[in-house]
Design goal:
By secondary structure, the chain is mainly beta. It has one helix at residues 2-32; strands at residues 41-44, 52-55, 61-66, 70-75, 80-85, 98-101, 107-111, 115-120, 126-131, 137-142, 148-153, 158-162, 168-171, 178-183, 189-194, 198-203, 209-214, 219-224, 230-235, 240-244, 250-253, 265-268, 274-278, 283-288, 294-299, 313-318, 323-328, 332-337. The protein folds into two domains: 1-32; 39-337, Methylamine Dehydrogenase, Chain H (7 Propeller). It starts with a helix and ends with a strand.
């Protein structure tokens, strides 16, 4: 009897310890997860997932690339399909993988690995098609009225093209593959980030460097505030910085406890107080520019038929200072409330 009691006590103790361990692990996991807040609204833009997407800076339009629907331009205010552009989606090797919308919503620029095209959002017509033969296209940007386009390439070159007269300027400051580019709405200032651990802000008329931002690892994301206040640069390890675009001085570093955070989308708020980011881990975060602290975060909806559940946040935008919109690889556009 005593032996049975001892065994029962030991079993109960072991069960209690296991239960406590599980509860502790669950607590840790819960603490690491972003807010469980559901989106205010969700719209499906690609039934079997998207390959690329870009939301206009004001959150009114999005361009979405998928293998079955080609390239679609969506009116996000009405959730209505505005145009379908399918000429670049005729094979699995010719998929549109990057896109950008001009700050004034005049044009959309889309690209696969080897060529890119410019589209008029007012009438839906194509306004030009260009091929890149020397290396793959890594990222693109378009200026207001489609007047300038910016193309970052795998050979380290960034090409600035005047679509009116065909003038080309090649920025050769980088030594390795370009990962991200962005451009001011007027097309006069560009930013580029590369595997050479450097992000440059440069003049597109002369090609001269304005600022050089060094990082401890390859630069994976860059962005310019359309209003000319800030620049953002982030690397593949643990350095994500907000810079004063007028002085080139560091304003703040994003504060996070993870060993690293990789960003797939970035935008500044209209009032200049917040930064919005998306990540390949489904995470969407809002940051305070003044402190670098994370204000809130969510996870976008994954596709139901994918296990483990995952989604890349392709694009993010502020609808106003309190609401944000996301497009992800799951094929969903989602609306989130910043201050619930």
């Amino acid at each position: 009897m005593r032996q049975e009691k001892s065994i029962n006590i030991l079993l109960n103790c072991n069960l209690t310890i296991r239960t406590l361990k599980l509860l502790f692990l669950l607590t840790l996991l819960t603490a690491c997860q972003p807010s469980g807040q559901a989106p205010e609204q969700r719209w499906q833009h690609a039934v079997e997932g998207a390959y690329a997407a870009n939301i206009s800076n004001d959150g009114k339009y999005s361009v979405v690339s998928s293998i079955h629907h080609g390239v679609s331009l969506w009116d996000l205010e009405k959730n209505a399909l505005k145009y379908s552009w399918s000429q670049q989606q005729n094979s699995a090797d010719n998929l549109v993988l990057v896109a950008d919308i001009a700050d004034n919503n005049s044009h959309a620029l889309i690209a696969n690995r080897n060529d890119f095209s410019l589209w008029n959002i007012t009438n839906g017509n194509s306004e030009g098609f260009w091929a890149i033969s020397e290396s793959n296209i890594r990222d693109i940007a378009v200026a207001n009225d489609g007047r300038y386009v910016l193309v970052g390439q795998s050979n380290g070159k960034v090409v600035h093209i005047n679509t009116n007269n065909g003038r080309r300027l090649e920025f050769l400051g980088h030594q390795e593959k370009i990962n991200a580019v962005d451009m001011m709405p007027n097309g006069r200032v560009a930013i580029s980030g590369s595997n050479d651990f450097v992000a440059y802000v440069w003049d597109t008329e002369s090609g001269q460097v304005i600022y050089r931002f060094n990082h401890p690892s390859r630069v994976t994301m860059v962005a310019l505030d359309p209003k000319g206040r800030y620049a953002f640069t982030a690397d593949s390890k643990k350095s994500a910085n907000i810079w004063d675009l007028k002085t080139g001085k560091l304003i703040t570093k994003l504060n996070y406890t993870n060993r690293q955070e990789v960003f797939s989308a970035v935008q500044f708020s209209p009032d200049g107080t917040k930064l919005l980011t998306g990540a390949p881990s489904r995470k969407v975060s809002v940051w305070a520019i003044s402190t670098g602290d994370r204000i809130t975060s969510w996870r976008v909806t994954p596709r139901e038929d994918i296990r483990p559940a995952g989604a890349v946040v392709y694009s993010v935008a502020f609808r106003d200072n309190s609401q944000v919109i996301t497009e992800s690889s799951s094929g969903y556009a989602e609306l989130w409330q910043v201050n619930k």
